[in-house]
Amino acid sequence: MQFNEKLSSVRLASGLTQEQLAEKVFVSRVTVSKWETGRGYPNLDSLKQLSHLFGISLDELLGSVELVAIAEAEVKTGVQKDRTLMFGLLDCLGLLLLFIPMFAVATSERINLIPLLEFHTPSAWILKTMVALLFLFGCTELALQNL
Question: What CA–CA distance (Å, rounded) separates 22 from 143?
Fold first, then answer.
């Protein structure tokens, strides 16, 4: 028996309407209708709620490997979106670090910070260090993306 058929039969056996089930699982009636017609599948949280509500195991409720694969794919998609956001923020941070004042210059008794865009005579070791650090940052970010 497919998930949609199983859900429909368990709901009817419990004497619930689609509207009542939707309220108990915190979704819309249309969503329950999609689940029962096979046009959609619940997420993991909804599956757990359905299992608890009807007093049956997830294995008994699902009854198909396909639904488990869909749920796992949904979780992986969420993780991928989070990783994409994180690495996008790291890229922005790397660019931002280029424009933050980083060099101190002593003038009289004070130390002033000079933005990189106004720093015209950097020594060779400073430039090499900056390039090396940005290179390492980029390599680290690429390595983390491929995990």
Answer: 44
